[in-house]
Fold this protein.
Amino acid sequence: MAANGEVKVGSAAGRNGLPKIQTARQSGICHDDSGPTVKAQTIDELHSLQKKKSAPNTPIKGAQAAFATIASLASLTRETGPKVVKGDPARKAETPRQVSHVSHHHYFTPTIDVSDSALKFTHVLYNLSPAELYEQAIKNEHGSFITSSGALATLSGAKTGRSPKDKRVVRDETTEDDLWWGKGSPNIEMDEHTFMVNRERAVDYLNSLDKVFVNDQFLNWDPNNQIKVRIVSARAYHSLFMHNMCIRPTPEELENFGTPDFTIYNAGQFPCNRYTHYMTSSTSIDLNLGRREMVILGTQYAGEMKKGLFSVMHYLMPKRQILSLHSGCNMGRDGDVALFFGLSGTGKTTLSTDHNRFLIGDDEHCWGEDGVSNIEGGCYAKCIDLSKEKEPDIWNAIKFGTVLENVVFDEHTREVDYTEKTVTENTRAAYPIEYIPNAKIPCVGPHPKNVILLACDAFGVLPPVSKLNLAQTMYHFISGYTALVAGTEDGIKEPQATFSACFGAAFIMLHPTKYAAMLAAKMQKHGATGWLVNTGWSGGSYGSGSRIKLAYTRKIIDAIHSGSLLNANYRKTEVFGLEIPIEVEGVPSEILDPVNTWSNKKAYKETLLKLAGLFKNNFEVFVNHKIGKDDKLTDEILGAGPVF
């Protein structure tokens, strides 16, 4: 495999550069007159029979063929590199009877000018099955265990979450004018040369290994806009994670996979050089949109790959007039689709998981000409305080094939304690979307009917539900508000407003107003309605009020899905100018207007104005960005904010 991610072949190679597999027939049989015969002549051969034979994971035409090596993993400044061969170097004792085994003994005469790296082989473990990846992880990766449910428990090392301050994007002629740069932007720039230095470092590290894992997979269930991705990684954990999170190709699709549209080189624990220009730590996650490559150094947290590719989709899809969205998505039995936006703690996963509706996806979607499609092939669920009673679908999805990140389990029974935060509070489970019983496969649906923006308002002044016009939808979509409860120095807990543009500021590539304008245009074209749903506090801020009951929120969501809320009578609130319903079936009418639930009306007004001020201050960074040919749309969005 060359450094650019392409697979090169020799004359005896199979399709797409994969080696043809040589098999040999065994004529001898070990006879045992007292019982059925076992077709084995050695212990190793007997052990090989324990594994059921199967066709290679990439169909190869032609039966008998000499083994051919894939080209080297040479980095750009090295003319040579380790020879890349298919197969596990640990399988030395197994006989040629095993179809899945390819001999790894190759002899050649080195020339005078070769480097030491050219004298070794790097084995490529290509699109392994979950069972094979389990074996690799348990044998070779410290901290990998099978839990009592059958899931694979892994450790992500020192990093147990993403490192947004270490993520950089190459600023060049490809991205100079397209991407959002400057104040408020998540895009930290780097130059092409620095990217190549880090790329060289990552590829050199992968060169030094005895084996690397390669996944060829897809993003986006829309067949007309699917992206081919290749992930080159050092750990079985990373390979299994991406096997679950990306769309898994069929054998036929894998045979005709061809050149990937995007390649990740994940060097995992191997750090970047801190003295390299732009580097501020030993971790660096680098995107080069011109080269269609991503390099990861100094972090083993698998979520960097998932969200890195999401960032790529936030760049590629809008160029095709397809809106990329950080949202959950489900569909009713009548084909009505709803999008759910919300930051952590707002209930996005809980509310988009509905046994009466089909799950299209839990996190990343595209809205194109034909409707919505899930970008991913799996789900990445939080596990902290997980219980079978609260989240039965997630609980039941944690089985063989699922990756459990950084969880703590009983050393004897291997039962996971989901309340345990010893390693991190950010414990996660990654599993194929097929593990959810009511998942819609393929993960596509018609155009959305409802766009639901979720906020957990710990200030307690936003209504439980509001109907939004298009300008308000854009305003609140760009704001991406929720409020978290955080501890202060003196131990008193108070709400902290959090704003994340488009409900996913860390992943967007273009200016937020571009995504907002696309959302409004699609909503207008297809007749979708916007809603703002508060899953936070009522009757006072955190500490004095109480959390809105989940049962009430579910009734509100049900009324949105059924269409009954669209036909309700509404009145407008002060300051934010939100349209709130007079009544919702199953929800006490007095809580629908927050002012009714506060005993101290003066405190309510002060808190309302405080939150309005926070919204206004947050929006300052977007005020000077013009949308369209004139300022009309910009003025409309600004006019949809709080007035005070």
The first helix runs from residue 43 to 49. The chain has 13 helices and 32 strands. The first strand starts at residue 83 and ends at 86. Residues 138 and 144 are 5 Å apart (CA to CA).
